[in-house]
Amino acid sequence: MTISLLAHLACEKGIWGPHLIVVPTSVMLNWETEFLKWCPAFKILTYFGSAKERRIKRQGWLKPNSFHVCITTYRLVIQDSKVFKRKKWKYLILDEAH
Length: 98
Fold this sequence. Notes:
Blueprint: H1 2-13, E1 19-23, H2 28-38, E2 44-46, H3 51-58, E3 69-73, H4 74-79, H5 81-86, E4 91-94
């Protein structure tokens, strides 16, 4: 449902993002896989890894259209909160993964 909403926003309203999706670590790969399956036109940034790997992923992410959707975990949003606050997000999606 969420992916179809973001696809609708992009195709019908021209709102491509950036969107932030915060998920439990256990479903992070599922989200990425579903985006690749249903919306391959979206540029996805999976924000995960060591501090060094995350720093590399952030290079250039303040440029327009560097990605459409960022998928990360609750732990990393808290840990890297200063970085996430600098980005102007269109939509924030929180997955509880019941």
